[in-house]
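Feature request disguised as a bug: please show the residue count (156) next to Zinc-ribbon domain-containing protein in the output. Example input:
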Amino acid sequence: MRDFFEDLGKRLGETAESLTNRASEVVEVQRIRGQIRALDRNNERDYRDIGRMIYEKYKNGEVIDTEMVCICEEIEKREATAEEMEQMIADSKGTTVCPNCHANLTPDMAYCPQCGEKVPEEEEEPEEEAAGTEAEVAEETAEEAETAAAPESEEA
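Example output, currently without the count:
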């Protein structure tokens, strides 16, 4: 009977530890998603500012110049950071990210369920194709060598 309770205690401890680890992962993902939302909000604010500045220049008959370059650069930086964070989330979940809409995709998906974009195949395949191409080149080279040697033997 004592063994039963010891075993039960160990199992409860393992289960509690597993739940704690899972909760930590969920909290981390939510923290990153919060950062992404903040980056998106800042981009939306800058989009509005760009539009307002361009419209004011247009309204005043001014030539639109490179004043907006800094804002555009900040938007690009935040977009790149958000993409990196989405990839971090995907990596932690063992998934990939849709190149079109950045939705998380499981390895068995052929198309993104959010936007319908075809999921790129794994990077291992180009390596296999390259190996096949090298073998084909070697085979063609051998055939060319045989062809070049054949006319010489006929002349002799």
